[in-house]
Fold Homogentisate phytyltransferase.
Amino acid sequence: MNQISPPSSHFSQTWLYAFWKFSRPHTVIGTSLSVWGLYLIAIPITGTSFTIEQLISVFFAWLACLCGNVYIVGLNQLEDVEIDKINKPHLPLASGEFSQHQGKLIVITMGILSLVLAWLTGPFLLGMVALSLAIGTAYSLPPIRLKQFPFWAAMCIFSVRGTIVNLGLFLHFNWALGKTPTIPAAIWVLTVFILIFTFAIAIFKDIPDMEGDRLYNITTFTLQLGPQAVFNLALWVLTLCYLGMILVGVLRLSALNPAFLAMTHLVVLVGMWMRSLAVDLQDKTAISQFYQFIWKLFYLEYIIFPIACILA
């Protein structure tokens, strides 16, 4: 005989699943890999060794960044409920799993927690989190609502993911490890790569959302240029990223293993182009799947680059 789960257990499971969707899992994974990847890069670059105290500090930095992540994506959902009912009906506010009041409570709580945790963890982390939250607020919240303007919308996304997160986290880990807060060449290489890469993410993400964006007058590059042009632009931007990393490998930057860096990025570049040939721009599901594939490439960079540093 099948057992029936207690109502409270079922409610908890349902709420946690809704919260997981509300946090936008692909961004949570990206944020997590950014934090832990940059810590693994900081260890060989600064010449220090692992300690339990360090891991505790990294853990709290990770929590602060996760809370900030949920604040930013949650605020965007609060302001986009009607648009999401068309573009992303599975999201908790659009589907009715969360009420507007619940959404606001989660966003406010996460925003406060991120700032408090960052304040307790270190000054560079606090500056990074505060600046990220400010840009995320300006991106979604009226009257500024920068997401209405294609250039500024893209600028918000790649400035936070590309510049603020990488430089801010590395400075934080440098400070936490007792080193002079400086930015070495390897971190600039990663920052430029991620900066350009997230521009591709920023323009590509609107391709499957054309219907809702058009209906609610959200101007995007996709609506201005057409999905095929934006798809091709994103591919060539990503290609530029990988060719740049291959060139860095050829130039043999001392903090990175050149053969590993060049070969891994060449393999990923070839794989990306092969995967792109199967995308049907008339199929919204196929476009969304390729968008998630681009995020997987983003995750992969925070695995490849730390290994290249460790192997140097």
Notes: Residues 52-79 form the longest helix (28 residues).
